[in-house]
Write a structure and sequence with these properties.
Bound molecules: guanosine-5'-triphosphate, sulfopyruvate, manganese (II) ion
Number of helices: 17
Radius of gyration: 23 Å
Shape: globular
Low-confidence stretches: none
Distance between the termini: 71 Å
Helix content: 25-40%
Strand content: 15-25%
Structural class: alpha+beta
Amino acid sequence: MAPTKNPHLLAWIDEVTKLTKPDEVMWITGEESQLEDLRKEGCSTGEMIKLNEEKLPGCYLHRSDRQDVARVEGRTFICSRKEEDAGPTNNWMDPKEMYDLLYSIADGSMKGRTMYVIPFSMGTVDSPFAKIGIEVTDSIYVVLSMAIMTRVGNKVLEALGDSPDYTKGLHCKDKLDPEKRYISHFPEDNTIISVNSGYGGNVLLGKKCLALRIASHLGHQEGWMAEHMLILGIEDPEGNVRYVTGAFPSACGKTNLAMLIPPEKYRKAGWKVYCVGDDIAWLRIGEDGRLWAVNPENGFFGVAPGTNNKSNPNALASTSKNTIFTNVVRNLDDNTVWWEKMTDERPMNAEDWKGEIWPPESTEKGAHPNSRFTAPAKNCPCISSEFENPKGVPISAIIFGGRRAKTAPLVYQSRDWDHGVFVGSVMGSETTAAATGEVGVVRRDPMAMLPFCGYHMGDYWQHWMDMGKKMSNPPKIFNVNWFRTDENGDFIWPGFGDNLRVLEWILKRCEDKVDADEVEIGYVPKPEDIDLEGTDLDTDTLAGLVAIDKDLWREEAAGVHEFYGKFGDKLPDKLKEELATLDEKLK
Ligand code: GTP
Ligand code: SPV
Ligand code: MN
């Protein structure tokens, strides 16, 4: 029996049941015993593999279909009623046409299967800012992952009561046919439909679909913002805690920055770092005129490769229990997991991400480059005491960043809010394995939201401008790049924990405690103002890292002109002016 009397919800579930025709319907209650039964059932069908209970208690391995390992941006649609409202950076289809197409795919697709109904909350249940969703799915992996990534079950239904105000999410695995895969959003109907995929970002509908694409549209209407941002707290030796957010494109370092461990010198001096969120921030203006950030998620869906005891011990610790690993290596000696760079030595007796024997002499990667872990946030040793504070945390600085071998300096500060919005709007970054397609090509990814903005990007930029005007004390805006390379293609900046050295400069700039050099694109540090003690770098190298190559920046500006050209009348005048100023300075 349904654990709710909500007439709107019951009517919709009835409709979906008639459409997909499952053998059974199961409401997810949030009780541990029900989840445990589902884990057992997942193992019996092979959807999940139980890992070594002593070494990895409560942990499971899942392998997605080989053709289904990343987000599919080419098959992701914003089906607003008017095409113009989706804008030039989103795929669009007329909602009626898309519903017809998706219903024809969903029709009978759950025959012989169980349909799970997952009530979930993005944000703590009962928070005035939380958004409730109901995800209907035929995947146990989705149920178990949603139970880690969000708050699920009857308590969410209680919070919803009889209200019609929830996001409808329908997910049908169907035949996992890549040609019939659609990740579709209907912002005006508060509805998401995802078919023919089983991969995280395409099917955990609370995450990118609700908390970014649908929520960005709601935020535009309601006066707040949903952003692809980490949220980090930094405590200095005097005990002051300041918070920053960082928007970097997929697989460009948010999880790593959000959990960083300070370099030894900083640790000894008393610096501490607290993780509030690693992927999504909902931002609102507080009564104090500052920007406040909440992480609507309850777990991490993090990139596995590269995570190790040196690069990100906190992420590794987060995966030590009650975690689901997707598309990593299985070590057959002790039934644990492995991925590239976890340890120096690879396991010799192992299965690769596809579940095939991984020969010791193989030159192939064992884990998929976009293999991931789904881990409860409360496992993180540095989780912030404010993680569940419904008000969120006040933000001192917003940091944009990307993966650039050249051009972008280690760090620079924008001149003011509007210039900062410009800096975010022209972000460029090399593509990664987080989405299907070529890896390593530079593309414009404004505010790291190119794949996640649920409405016209021109309106989105205007919304940023408008939010800035409403704040009496807005965050300062910066841009970072940890990924500049030398002539051998090696990263020059050590990155990871050492990124705190750059954050320290950023915080000092926020409080006018350090000078800077004004250059064409904003303010860069004086090389001696970044603390390099304990690194192999000297101030000359740092000077190189913050140097501006005018020729490269002229090329960059030309690329921005081309990109901005797509937005026509919707490009805010302010951004046009900022680009003209940049052109002028680069002359
Ligand atoms: P999504 O979950 O896809 O949104 O990605 P994310 O931004 O959270 O990326 P994540 O922190 O997982 O980092 C992705 C990759 O970048 C990993 O392979 C990291 O090892 C690498 N990386 C992260 N931070 C740094 C850094 O400071 N320097 C270098 N060189 N690599 C880094
Ligand atoms: C990203 O690609 O930015 C992710 C992973 O955080 S996914 O949830 O698949 O979108
Ligand atoms: Mn992400």
